[in-house]
Specification:
About 20% of the residues lie in helices and about 30% in strands. It is an alpha/beta fold. It is globular, with a radius of gyration of 21 Å.
């Protein structure tokens, strides 16, 4: 006598036996219409939508992640650490739907402004258990970094130096110096809101924050006033940083 196999079991067997090759790099993010609130835990979004020439240089007009640019070494490093990396072109729009797909975002440089909806999207992102690497740039332009300001960071100035003073932390373990290229600093960091990890001082200020952590109730936020130095892949800082962010 034959046993009748339920249809549900047959379907389950067929589905489980199928093998589908899927790569994040194959997704077209131009319209950001990926269905559902899918979280890609091992995927990093590089928000270079407000890049002023630090991430995408020497590209302009049409931005191609596959073509060489200043952000390429960092992308290659992250891929070597088993991350998938999505890079947003300059001028792209930040939306809540886009950010819901990621647990870790690198905001690579700042030039220009965000809309109220874009800042709200970042607020929603940070209200989840997420991680943000916020890299600003020099503040020679008139407007301040809106996303940084929302987080209580008032960057100012343009400074090129070697940062040599660090407070102990897993991020700064083994770090003795860090190259800072035309970056900005937080002149009077509020210790109730900011944990300063790297300091800048000159004749006009003492103990300004060049890098550190924003104390946030739900997310891990590392800030630094210069993206160029991170693109040089400073070890062990870069290794420590992404271990902490993850």
């Amino acid at each position: 006598m034959k046993k009748i196999i339920p249809l549900v079991v047959i379907v389950s067997i067929l589905v489980s036996s199928c093998s589908v090759d899927f790569a994040v790099d194959d997704i077209d993010f131009s319209n950001y219409t990926m269905p559902g609130n899918i979280v890609m835990k091992d995927t990093i979004l590089v928000d270079a939508s407000r890049d002023g020439g630090v991430w995408w240089y020497p590209q302009s007009g049409s931005y191609n992640p596959s073509a060489s640019h200043q952000g390429t070494p960092l992308v290659n490093y992250l891929k070597s650490q088993n991350y998938e990396v999505i890079e947003l072109a300059r001028g792209a729009t930040i939306t809540s739907e886009l950010l819901r797909k990621f647990k870790l975002v690198i905001r690579a440089g700042e030039f220009g402004t965000y809309t109220a909806d874009e800042l709200a999207a970042y607020q929603e992102f940070l209200n989840r258990n997420t991680s943000l690497l916020l890299a600003s740039e020099h503040s020679a332009q008139l407007q301040n970094d809106q996303l940084a300001s929302y987080l209580g960071l008032q960057f100012e100035g343009s400074y090129t130096t070697d940062i040599t003073r660090f407070d102990p932390h897993p991020i700064t373990e083994g770090v003795s110096t860090h190259v800072f290229i035309a970056g900005s600093v937080v002149r009077n960091p509020d210790p109730n809101k900011i944990l300063t990890l790297g300091y800048f001082s000159d004749s006009t200020m003492n103990n300004a924050a060049a890098m550190g952590i924003v104390k946030h109730p739900t997310s891990r936020i590392f800030f630094i006033g210069d993206m160029n130095g991170l693109e040089l892949l400073p070890h062990p800082l870069i290794d420590n940083l992404f271990k902490w962010l993850k």
